[in-house]
Every structure is written in structure tokens, then in C-alpha cells.
Amino acid sequence: MASPVTLTHLKTVVQPVTLLKVIHRFSISRIYYFTLSLVDMAESAAPAVPSDELLEWPKKDKRRFLHAVYRVGDLDRTIKFYTECFGMKLLRKRDVPEEKYANAFLGFGPEDSHFVVELTYNYGVDKYDIGSGFGHFAIATPDVYKLAEDIKSKGGTITREPGPVKGGKSVIAFAKDPDGYLFELIERGPTPEPLCQVMLRVGDLERSIKFYEKALGMKVVKKTDRPEQKYTIAMLGYAEEQETTVLELTYNYGVTEYTKGNAYAQLAISTDDVYKSGEVVNVVTQELGGKITRQPGPIPGINTKIVSFVDPDGWKTVLVDNQDFLKELEKKD
Question: Which residues pair with 235 in a beta bridge?
Fold first, then answer.
């Protein structure tokens, strides 16, 4: 078998110019095969197309609305207003002086089965900008007229007097809390979830619907277009509107952007697996926009596992591990 030809051998039989040409060809050849190797490595490292099983996860997951988080300028004042005017219960309250904040959880039933509000007070901050994007919360009540009168009698502000909605039969009113947050009061029969809506404004309704369906496994329970008033709304959730809390997305014709302010913070929703849920959100944000703001994992010092992200309009959601959340509630007892 012939010995392989090396550059040393070539040097003895070729002229210098020829040798340079050979060396050049060797170099080009090596670069070519090195480049091919890099391409192969990149292709092998490329992310796989997400499986149908992964994208179906949000629909199979055990999810419900846990709480809405927002900031207030006087915690005790807001607690007093919500308990006396709305009839909510103070479920828990905690002060964290080392981090200079306190918060309180209020609702119409225990946190392990009801949607609640989480009020946050940051030491020394007595006012926030709600912005133009946040809309309102909603409370279902058997008698809107009576609730509105009770609120006024206790010093509260009714910004829209009770009565039927324009072009419909639903009876509603609007109240404003001490920090300027609006609460829609909806006349409705007995319901397992009186704290029944969170309304946010979005710039592209169809895109937002797709995002919440794919990333969070919600379903559209109602969609209404009001061309005479130039807006469209979509209600999304995990059960029918009468049975649970829903997210109301509002699109105002021609308006694609809103200010977020610094008052409203986020929605918290439960999940059985923050890691798998994070994978799904990562895929959906690449398709529709938004981004993960905190990778899946435990919160230092608390160990509750979460993953947080913003939707294409910048509205934040936190997915919270179901079992960790229940353990957190047990600690307060």
C-alpha cells in the first residue's frame, strides 16, 4: 500500500510556486470541511419542532385564576373600602419591612377555591398611574341598585348609575375605589365566583385571542362586536362566564397601543407544571409576540415555583405551581 503523500514529500518534488498552490488547496479544503462540520453541528443543535402533545398541555393542565396583583397608595384605606363597600373578606395580610412593602389578599371566598385581589403597598408611595390600558374588575351581585346605593352611603363613588347596558338587557353600574380603579357591578343570580372579570385593552384582538388560547389554554366563552360604539370584546376563561372569573379583552377600533402605567401588575394562574407550561409559552411568544420575563423555577426564600411572561401587548401573567400555592396557603394558618 502506497504511503500517503504529505506536504514534506511534495516539497521535494515541486517548485516553490507549485508548493504554494498545493498548500492553498489544502487550506481551502480544510476550511470547506470545517465549515460543513459547523453546519452539521448547528443543524443538530437546532430546536426541534414542538410536538402536538406539548402544545395540547395547556388544555389538559389544571388551571384557574388565582389572583390579580395591583398597587395601592394606602393599604388600610383600600381594605376598609373593599370590605365595607363591596362586601369582600380580608383573607390574609403580611408586612415585609426588610423589602419595604406590605400586601393584603381579599375576596369573596377562600383562596384555594376563589379568585382574589392582591393589594400591594410600597412604603412611601401613595399614588400610581393606572394608565389607559387597564380597564376594570367586575363584581357580580343579585341587586346592582342596592349595591350601588350601599357604596354611595359609605362614601364611595358611582361613576355610572345602575341601569341596562346600551343595546342590551344586562343591568350594570360602575364604582371607583380610592385609588381610581374601576369596578363594574353586574346584576347576576347566585354565582360561585362574584369577583368575575378582569378587563384589559389590547391592540389586536385576534392575535390576543390566539395567544391566550395557545399559551394559557383558555377558551373564548363570548365575543361581542359593537360597531356603533366602535369596539369589540372577547371573554376568555376556563369555564362559562356565569361560573367563573373571565379575562375580558377589549379592542377599540383603530387603537393599537395603550399606556400601562405602574399601578396594575399582573394576573396569577395555576398550573401543575411550570416547566412544561414555560416551554409552551416560549413557543407561542416566538409565533405571536410577548416574552418570558422569569424562567421557570422556585422563588428564592419561598420555594414556590413560577414562570412569568408578558403577552404581545405587554400584559403580565404569572403561572404558579398548584401544590406550592396550596403549601403557601397552609403556612399562613
Answer: 222, 248
* pLDDT score at 48: 52
* Residue 136 among known ligand-binding residues: yes
Q: What is the DSSP string of 289-320?
A: --EEEEEEEEPTTT--EEEEEE-TT--EEEEE
* pLDDT score recorded for residue 49: 58
Which domain CATH number covers 304?
3.10.180.10
d(CA 247, CA 258): 17
Say if CB 76 and CB 102 are below 8 A apart: no
User: 90 lies in which domain range?
Assistant: 54-332
What does the block give as the cell for 211?
395567544
Among residues 4, 66, 125, the alpha carbon closest in space to that of 304 is found at 66
Name the grid cell of 261: 402605567
Evaluate whether residue 291 is within a structural domain.
yes
Q: Which of 43, 111, 149, 184 is catalytic?
A: 184
Q: What is the pLDDT of residue 333?
A: 57
The reply to whether 149 sits in an annotated binding site is no
| Within-domain flag for 259 | yes
Spatial distance between the Cα atoms of 102 and 109, rounded to a whole number of angstroms: 21
Task: Tell me the three state secondary structure of residue 121.
Answer: strand
Active site residue 98: no
- The pLDDT tens digits of the residues spanning 184-208 come to 999 999 999 999 999 999 999 999 9
Contact of 22 with 5, CB cutoff 8 Å = no
Q: What is the mean pLDDT of the chain?
A: 88
Domain count for the chain: 1
Is 61 contained in some domain? yes
Domain assignment of residue 39, yes or no: no
Bridge partners of 71, per DSSP, are 120
Grid coordinates belonging to 236: 376568555
Between CA 19 and CA 24 the distance in angstroms is 9
Confidence of residue 9 (pLDDT cuts 50, 70, 90): very low
pTM value is 0.84
* Residue 24 among known ligand-binding residues: no
Give backbone dihedrals phi and psi of 131, rounded to 5 degrees, phi first.
80, 180
